[in-house]
Amino acid sequence: MPRRVAVVAAGTSRKWGIFPGTYRDLISEAGKATFDSNPRIKPADIEGFILASVFPERSVFQSHVATLAAETVGVKPLKLFQRVENMCGSGTIAIRTAYMAIASGLADVVMVIGAEKMHTPQPVETYLSMLGGVDREYEGSLGVTAPAQFALAAQSHMQKYGTTQEQMSLVSVKNHTHAANNPYAHFPKACTLEEVLNARPVTTPFTILDCSPITDGAAGMILMSEDKAWEYTDKPVFILGTGQAASGFNYANVPSDLGDWTMLQKAAQDAYRMAGVTAEDIDVAEVHDCFSISEIIITEELGFAAKGEGGSFIADGRSDYGGDVVINPRGGLLGCGHPLGATGVAQGVELFRQLRGEAGVRQVEDARMGLGHNLSGVSEHHVLIYGRGDL
Amino acid sequence: MVEKLTWDYVYGCDPVPQQTSEFNKLHEYYEALNEGRLMTTKCDACGQVLWPPRTVCPECMSGRLSWTQLPDEGEIIVFTVQESGAFPGFTLPLIFAYLQFGPVRFIGKIIGAEPEELAPGKKVRLQPEKQEDGRILPAFRLI
User: Fold this and answer.
1) Which residues pair with A82 in a beta bridge?
2) CA distance linking residue A143 with residue A151, whole number of Å
3) How many domains does chain B have?
4) Type and span of the H or E element at A184
């Protein structure tokens, strides 16, 4: 039997956006915030260290970043250390990897940090890095980056299910409204439906407010085996289930219509089965709204909405406070920004706070079970289910 | 006109695919583009037509593949018109479409069309674009 694994500490860098410092400075901030969240844990307690970071080779001219980061936060990892890179979903994969290490007995205490410095002195670098995040030879070199890819998914969903631009924009309105309550968000400011619809067009059907921004940010988390966890906190948050599935890197090989994310359905079903729960048991979810359409499709594939009804699900307020499930209370990628490697970890930080009742004005009432979802493309998905320690 | 410093940086990073036999076993794909033909590989063992082209068949692991020409006409499944946030050196608006070409589908760049002329189901044909340094990339125009 795998051992139970709990999250016992979590924190983010102070203010996401354009970070006035180096990659090391950014990692330091997230490391300090994580240790500060549970003063009983010291760097010397950490046995394993995992860094999620997507393109430091390009953005800060540095590879070999896992031990750089471990040293930066004072950790001497005597049992395992590694970097995780799988584009936008790297953060959740890092947590999942820490889970595997602890569940298997390889280590008792593992720290995860996600960090991305996306703003560089040479602004064109971000474009180059991002086109390296799709199939560079056959897609990126044509000028295709994430906005065009997800716009094609949006067009497919609109064509097949009648989803409207207005419904997509409501995702942005909700998540920006949530972000206004989150001090570290890149854009902590609510916006109206008219503002989203009339914002600068990016690629049809998206305006700039349908797209997550380019952001520097970092986040950290410490995980422990169950017996250790109770020594360090009275309120551990357990990882109850997880799933992951991919099929199709180049868009040519996506196994379905672009608006049907069958790999997410598979990853979610595995996670629910492992946790012994269903979508109805989830009180709060942090999901990958890299573009407004993404959250609509995600709510369907996770089983919160029926397939094809993600548009009316957001329009009817079912994913907001007072609805079926509160989705993206921290403000999502749309409001917080999307520092690639950091995003999944920051989603976990929010769920940790929500399930401990420590989310302040963002608190989802009596949140008992949470779901984290990250993606690395329309056909690559990573899901984690978290539960309160007293369940 | 892109600022020289920016362009030198992009060119130095060289995001355009390698297209010669020295660096790419699938150089014939680009040689065919130069002759106005859209080719891909077909597995001699299992018959699968693959996109992108391969040197080993991912379906059956055979290393015996042949070049096959895709149909002259493809069809737009869905498309998007990009009006901002383009890569330096690209002219806006950029149009990208998910295209069906015989047994394969992929994202293609549409050139020489007004956005209002486009619709799902419209037919397109290959019209490759030569880069300044002589390298070539696929693009498509409405028929």
Assistant:
1) A50
2) 14
3) 1
4) none
pLDDT digits (tens, 9 = 90+) for A281-294: 999 999 999 999 99
pLDDT tens readout for residues B99-110: 999 999 999 999
Helix (H, G, I), strand (E, B) or coil at A178: helix
DSSP state of A216: B
Q: Are residues A262 and A282 in the same domain?
A: yes
- Whether residue A190 is contained in a domain is answered as yes
Q: What is the DSSP string of B72-138?
A: SEEEEEEEEEE-S-PPTTPPSSEEEEEEEETTEEEEEEE-S--GGG--TT-EEEE--EE-TTS-EE-
Q: B interface toward A at CB cutoff 8 Å?
A: 6, 9-10, 13, 15-17, 51-52, 77-88, 90, 94, 96-98, 104-109, 115, 120, 137-139
Mean pLDDT, rounded, for A240-256 = 97
A14 & A159 share domain = no
Please give the single-letter amino acid code of residue A27: I
Overall domain count for chain A: 2
Residues of chain B contacting residue A124, judged by C-beta atoms under 8 Å apart: 6, 9-10, 87-88
For chain A, list residues whose CB is within 8 angstroms of any CB belonging to chain B: 122, 124-125, 127-128, 131-132, 135-145, 147-149, 151-152, 154-156, 159, 200-205, 208, 250-253, 258
Nearest to A156 among B52, B78, B106 (CB): B78
**Torsion, Cα of A115, A121, A123, A129 (10° steps):** -40
B43-62 confidence digits (pLDDT tens): 999 999 999 999 999 999 99
**Sequence-separated (6 or more) residues with CB below 8 Å from residue A227:** none
Q: What range defines the domain where residue A188 resides?
A: 145-205+240-385
Q: What is the mean pLDDT of chain A?
A: 97
DSSP A239: E
CA angle, A316 then A317 then A319, to 5°: 125
Give this complex's ipTM.
0.96
- Are A20 and A166 within one domain? no
Are A18 and A76 within one domain?
yes
- Per CB-CB distance under 8 Å, the chain B contacts of A204 are 80-83, 115
Read off the CATH number of the domain in which A22 is found. Answer: 3.40.47.10
Residues of A in contact with B98 (CB under 8 A): 152, 156, 251, 258
- What's residue B2's pLDDT? 56
Residues contacting A302, CB < 8 A, separation 6+:
A264, A268, A279, A282, A285, A287, A371, A373, A383
Same domain, A80 and A98: yes
Q: Which residues of A are catalytic?
A: 88, 338
Q: Which domain holds residue B33?
A: 4-142
- Does residue A138 lie in a domain region? no
* pLDDT band of B132, cuts 50, 70, 90: confident
